[in-house]
Every structure is written in C-alpha cells, then in structure tokens.
Amino acid sequence: MYVSINNQLFNQEEASLSVSDLSIQRGYGIFDFLKTINNKPIFLADYLNRFFNSAKEMHLPVPFSRTELQESIEKLIEKNAIANSGIKIILTGGYSEDGYTMSKPNLVIVQSPLEINEHYAGNGVSLVTYNHQRQIPHVKTIDYLQAIRLQNFVKERGAEDLLYHQNGFIRECPRANFFIVTENEIITPKSEILKGITRSKILGLNLEDYTFVERDFKLEDVYKAKEAFISSSTKNAFPVYRVDGKQIGDGQNRIVKLINTQLLQLIKQDQEEVAELKV
C-alpha cells in the first residue's frame, strides 16, 4: 500500500508526519473523501471543488494546483491498483514551532479498499438522536470528536449511528446527510450542515409526484415521516428504518429505492464520461 505526502509516494509503513503538525497538536485540518469504482474516481470535480472551498474557509493554502492534486490522486490509484476504493485527501495545518501558529500545510492522500454495494440488504440503518451542532458545519474538517466519543452511547441504545439535532432542529449524521419523505416532498435540512456531494446529486433528481426541498424541520417530523434515508459517498441513498427506537414508515422504502436507482445511473454516467476523457 502506498500513501501520497506532498505529491510524493511512500510505502504506507514509511509514511509519516512530524508530531509538530497542527493536525496532531490541535486537530486543525480539513479533508475530503471520494470513492473509486473500477479505478475511476466518482464525481471528482465536485469533491475537488469542496476540498478547495474548505481549505479557503480554514485559511489553508493548498500547496499544489488543482491539476497537480488530480494527478497525485491518479498516480496513487495506479500504484495501489485497488479497483474499488475510498480516497481521503487530507490538508493539515502544517508543522508549527509553537503548536498553535499555522505554517505550510501538508497534503496527505490515502487509499483503502471499499466494498461497493449497489443495493442494500436488510431494513436499513437505525439512528439515535443527539443534541449537538458541529463547529464550522459547512467545512469538512478533521474534527470528529463528538462522533467518536459517543460510539458507546450509540451502541448502548441499540443504534448504529448518530443523528444530530440542534434544540430539536434536525441537522445531519456524522458522515452523512439526512432526508425525510412526506406525502409529496423529499426534504433535507438547509441550515448549519455540510452540503454533501451525494446530497447535491439527489436534489437535482426528478421524481414523479415529488418535490425535492431544502428546508429545516424538527425531530417530530422525522417520527411521522413516510420514509427517511441518509446519503453519502459510500452508501448512496440508504434507508433509515428506526430513529430513537421508533419505526419510520412501513419499511418498504419505495421512494428511497427509486432515488438510489437514479443515483446509480448518475454514477455510471460519470464513469463513462471519465473513460471518454482518457481515450
């Protein structure tokens, strides 16, 4: 396995950063995550757009151009030869003499195998709610402190992941956006969230008799929804069958299945476009 650090490839066992890096000293840094299918990165341009925007918001100059970054990703994909994978692009606060002041950021790209499931098995995922608002929610920072700290909280309540709310207003899951389905709307929170790439693709879909809406809603709306689902790079559109121990809808997930089918078509189209560009 190889890792890219500042545009150079290293064997994973030899790849390292100094302990003076602000990502270690203060947890300061950003990242983005995308997947590859058959060695082709999916929606790469969208993820790079968000990555550069996050860097700008955190005052972290990216030490390489967009073209150089894309080339680094492609070199890593070729070197590791993992057809289906997750790629994480990390930009740190850099080596700091006083453990507080930013310096030249370090760019790290890692790749790991990823099981690609086009269709989900079982009922979906069970969530438990928690009153929490992420810092700088519109930026994909490396701060997952609360999500990791609450892993036992989730397990003790028989759930598989968290659903954050802010005083009753639904926000997001730690690694996914959240949607509910009503009689004629598919709604996702608008405020104080990270606007995921898969979320944006879903909002651009067309579904007969339904309107896609960005609007804040409350926990009570979740309990009485017809369906609920999460969206992410790894899970596409994935049903939520239970929240806080309460079953959501009838468990058939008809709308989520339709959305997931359309997402898979978009992914296939993106793969074909990437292949054409390389010919």
Q: How many H/I helices?
A: 8
Sheet with most strands: 9 strands, mixed
Roughly how many Å apart are the termini? 27 Å
- Secondary-structure element pattern, one letter each: EEHEEHHEEEHHEEEEHEHEEEH
- CATH architecture classification name of the largest domain: Alpha-Beta Barrel
User: How does the helix and strand content classify structurally?
Assistant: alpha+beta
CATH top-level class of the largest domain:
Alpha Beta
The radius of gyration computed from the alpha-carbon positions, rounded to a whole number of angstroms, is: 19 Å
Low-confidence stretches: none
| Helicity, as a percent range | 25-40%
Number of distinct beta strands? 15
- Using the coordinates shown, work out and report the CATH topology of the largest domain: D-amino Acid Aminotransferase, Chain A, domain 2
Assigned CATH superfamily of the largest domain: D-amino Acid Aminotransferase, subunit A, domain 2
Mean pLDDT: 96
Hey, roughly how much beta strand do the residues contain?
A: 25-35%
